[in-house]
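May I ask you for just one protein sequence along with its backbone structure tokens in two labelled lines?

_____
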Amino acid sequence: MDEGSTIPHTILLRRVEADTNVHQFYALMIERHLLRRVLLVRRWGRIGTRGRARPEEHPSETEAAAAMDRLAAAKRRRGYRDL
């Protein structure tokens, strides 16, 4: 990422409901890969496991950050909380 960037590059969320045995995490990360490609990587699963991952390419860091904010807001509405 650009050294002067003010866009957050990682959001970590979790949802814990002991009475229903729900122990989930959801992580969103913006990464830059070969040829200056910008990826939004989503990782999710049960806390304590590696989970699953899905990379999603975006044309710019700004658009990746907007998608990251939308996904995080949807997860927060479903009971996930920031770490």
